[in-house]
Design a protein that fits this description.
Blueprint: H1 3-16, E1 18-21, H2 27-40, E2 55-58, H3 66-72, H4 75-84, E3 90-99, E4 125-131, E5 142-144, H5 153-156, H6 169-178, E6 180-181, E7 189-193, E8 198-200, E9 209-217, H7 227-230, H8 233-236, H9 241-246
Length: about 280
């Protein structure tokens, strides 16, 4: 990403809450992701209206294939994260999202809604959605409310913390009237502030709408996914230093994230045992 392009992306996220990177994936990456999803989809339909009754989500996606890892640490995304997040920022979730035909609209929400800091607030998270199929209004392309990252809780004026109440139709209609449906080709990526209101649209088409969503957060924020438990250390050991840092094998100065007084990277060393495991059981 050139300096001018990066500057434009930062300006658009700052002012409107999102930016779109066209041609984000190389053709080979796109084909690899499609092959991966064809192999692992078909098991994990959503458990509620927010996840979607006709939507598949596969979490800890980076553990399935290196192509996902490469996308997570793409230099363009890292540059944008560095512009908005503090050093040693973290990966908070890595998932695929496949919206099947007949799915209803997702509730309006913000990805950083878990953090109980009054709005308007500085950015806690930064989200990406990568189109694996073409995004169109009729197949569930992401709908976004431009400028909503700057709104206070009072300006939002609705229950968006768990997704808006199904009974609050006035809120849903107000958000829909101010939103746009992102139409972008497969391989494009939308990057948006974690406090920007958005939703997955309804799928009225005959085919699925597949996407990846990798999200990042401040190094002091709790992550959506607990990667320490979902990604085996044997896999993490083979990842790049940057990915290891993104997964939390890093320290926020002076010592947030330490493991028994040591850097967490020590936990990736073969045969590592935490100090408590080395205690004499007879003591």
């Amino acid at each position: 990403m050139s300096a001018n392009t990066l500057s434009t992306a930062i300006e658009e996220i700052t002012t409107q809450g999102y930016t779109v990177i066209t041609g984000f994936l190389q053709p080979a990456q796109l084909q690899s992701i499609k092959a991966l999803l064809a192999r692992i989809n078909g098991q994990f339909l959503g458990r509620n209206n927010f996840e979607g009754d006709k939507t598949e989500r596969i979490y800890a996606l980076l553990a399935y294939d290196k192509v996902v890892q490469d996308i997570i640490e793409d230099s363009r995304i890292m540059a944008i994260c560095e512009a908005f997040l503090e050093a040693n920022f973290l990966l908070t979730t890595s998932q695929s999202i496949c919206i099947h035909p007949g799915e209803t609209p997702q509730p309006w929400h913000a990805d950083d809604v878990f953090y109980s800091i009054p709005r308007p607030r500085p950015m806690v998270g930064l989200s990406t959605v990568v189109a694996i199929d073409d995004f169109r209004a009729e197949n569930g392309g992401t709908e976004i409310v431009p400028g909503s990252h700057l709104w206070s809780d009072e300006e939002i004026g609705g229950d968006y913390r768990e997704g808006e109440s199904e009974r609050d139709s006035a809120f849903a209609e107000r958000m829909a009237s101010q939103s746009i449906a992102l139409e972008m080709p497969a391989g494009a990526c939308v990057v948006f502030a974690g406090n920007t209101l958005h939703r997955g649209g309804e799928n009225n088409s005959a085919g699925p709408r597949q996407a990846l969503s990798n999200q990042y957060c401040q190094p002091w924020a709790r992550t959506i996914e607990n990667f320490f438990l979902s990604v085996p250390r044997e896999l993490v050991r083979e990842m790049s230093p940057k990915l290891q840092s993104l997964l939390g094998y890093s320290v926020l100065s002076p010592f947030m994230g330490q493991v028994s007084g040591s850097h967490p990277l020590k936990a990736l060393e073969p045969g590592y045992l935490p100090p408590v495991s080395r205690l004499d059981p007879h003591l």
